[in-house]
């Protein structure tokens, strides 16, 4: 049924050409696998970096704990205004370290808008804040904003002043936005009480 091949010259042989083709296929497959592995590693690294940046833009923000304003009389007219605003801030839950000196503050209200860096304003550590960097959820810092002058200065007593933004009158609204170095923003809406009197040296905003 089966014929036995006795002639050695009639046996199948693997030629050198076939061997070369086989080796070439193995090399091509190895190179392709290396390229895929490198590409996957690069994409993974890029995805991790993008994820971290996106998380920072959402979570690394400030939380305004309280806001108060200093009430003062305008000359001897009997009219009272808020000429200085104090913000007590902390880092939001889940946020990383927040450098106040790398944070900007923008105000938008009835008198227009303006912005400056918190580094231009007077700040005061309330709880365990070193170098104006909030590192723990218990850290608290006060930021003082003077809105009674016409020039932007760094006053060690009252804080920085906003150019072309005057004191806040009774009933005036103000929107304040803090933006950290990572781009995360926190907006605080302020409304001055409709009545300001000499009996109040400060009011909660």
UniProtKB/TrEMBL annotation:
It holds the Pfam family Flagellin_arch-type. GO terms for cellular component: archaeal-type flagellum. GO terms for biological process: archaeal or bacterial-type flagellum-dependent cell motility. It is found in: Archaeal flagellum. InterPro entries: Flagellin/pilin_N_arc, Flagellin_arc-type. GO terms for molecular function: structural molecule activity. Flagellin is the subunit protein which polymerizes to form the filaments of archaeal flagella. NCBIfam families: arch_flag_Nterm (TIGR02537). Belongs to the archaeal flagellin family. This is Flagellin.
């Amino acid at each position: 049924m089966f014929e036995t091949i006795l002639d050695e010259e009639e046996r199948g042989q693997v030629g050198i050409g076939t061997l070369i083709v086989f080796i070439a296929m193995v090399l091509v497959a190895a190179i392709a696998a290396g390229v895929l592995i490198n590409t996957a590693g690069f994409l993974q690294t890029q995805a991790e970096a993008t994820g971290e940046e996106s998380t920072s833009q959402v979570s690394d923000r400030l939380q305004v704990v309280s806001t108060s304003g200093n009430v003062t009389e305008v000359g001897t007219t009997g009219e009272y205004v808020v000429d200085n605003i104090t913000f007590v801030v902390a880092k939001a839950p889940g946020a990383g370290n927040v450098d106040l000196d790398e944070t900007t503050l923008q105000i938008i209200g009835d008198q227009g808008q303006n912005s400056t860096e918190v580094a231009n304003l007077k700040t005061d550590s309330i709880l365990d804040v070193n170098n104006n960097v909030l590192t723990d959820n218990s850290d608290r810092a006060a930021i003082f904003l003077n809105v009674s002058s016409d020039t932007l200065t760094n006053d060690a007593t009252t804080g920085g002043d906003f150019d072309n933004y005057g004191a806040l009158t009774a009933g005036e609204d103000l929107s304040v936005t803090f933006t950290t170095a990572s781009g995360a923003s926190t907006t605080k809406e302020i409304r001055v009480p409709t009545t300001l009197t000499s009996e109040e040296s400060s009011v909660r905003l």
